User: Fold this.
Amino acid sequence: MSNDQSNFHEIRQINVFRAPIQKVWSAVATAEGLSAWFMPNDFKPIVGHSFHLDAGPFGHSPCTVTEVEPPNRLSFHWGKDWTLTFELRAVNEQETECILIHGGWDEAKVTEFGQSHTQIRGNMSQGWIGLMKKLGGMVEEGQ
Assistant:
């Protein structure tokens, strides 16, 4: 299988939020922050920490933290195939660029819930647009 199939590249969402980098870091690198805009969880920003995302009707998705570089990079394995990464960069004292990268897509694989990556990738890509808007609204509140 070729790696240049455009439908199966990683999902990337790039946003600039009107919020200091530490505020955005707290929203993506703490259990409370992730719960507020993404999913309930028992996350801890410690490399090797195993935790779960509460995916509602899909149950608890197992995850493992793989990178923690405060306040610029957080990455974790999600489920059996995916990797989720947040890259943050201070544009200035009151603005932060946030890049979300959802990787691990493979048209030959199915999720642990029996859905093919082909089926679910488009939904996830669209879902991230709304979730990043929700994250932005949360971190920009009170700015």
Remarks:
- The two ends are 47 Å apart (CA to CA).
- The first helix runs from residue 21 to 28.
- The chain has three helices and six strands.
